[in-house]
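Hi U.,

Before I forget, here's the chain from the pilot set. I'm dumping it here mostly so it's searchable later in email.
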Amino acid sequence: MRGAHLICGSLAVALLALAACDRAPGKPGPGPEVIAPSEVTDFETLYRQNCSGCHGEDGKGGAALALADPVYLAIVDDETLRRVASNGIPGTPMSAFARSSGGMLTTRQVDIIVSGIRSRWAKPNALQGATPPPYSAPAPGNAQHGAEVYSTFCASCHGPGGRGSAKGSSIVDGSFLALVPDQELRTLVIVGRPELGAPDWRGNVPGRPMSPQDISDVVAWLAAQRPAFPGQPYPNQQKTAGETR
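Structure:
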């Protein structure tokens, strides 16, 4: 009998020890398990963590254009959204987010972001019956004619030669053009920046929308202003004796 009492006593001590460990300092309390990053499927969470820093809260725009712009979503298809989100845009702040391109998101998560953007922010009547210019240029533009297009449609806000005015910033700044490829320039000309008061292709001159050729030509003119040595203010500066770089 004494042996049985000893066994019971030992079990009691062990149970008390386990209970004490369960209340040990630093031990996580009861609650939901942490979800692995690859298992997150909530659009709001994925957008906030991966997109909002540049495209703004609720897609309203920031350093990059607004994804919640119905005009933008009317000219861009889901495949383009998916490709840009997955692969990024080389040479720009838009990095790749898909695992296949070095990012952190699975293919499913990229699809959730794309479908969420479309379902929340696209509007069937965004263009009000207008036919938009094609998202991609069908042929290279004419930079010489683009200078005339700029004077007609853009100079009233962005100033002579694109150097800026009280109404709009410079759009020939070398640092800006070095970070914005031709396709993004085209997109900006077509959809504008409504969150900043910049109209789309229909609103620069009342009653006179820009034609597809106008857009291609002004983009060609802007691209011609891009510096050959982005970020280097003195490309031809000679080294002094003994100087190394």
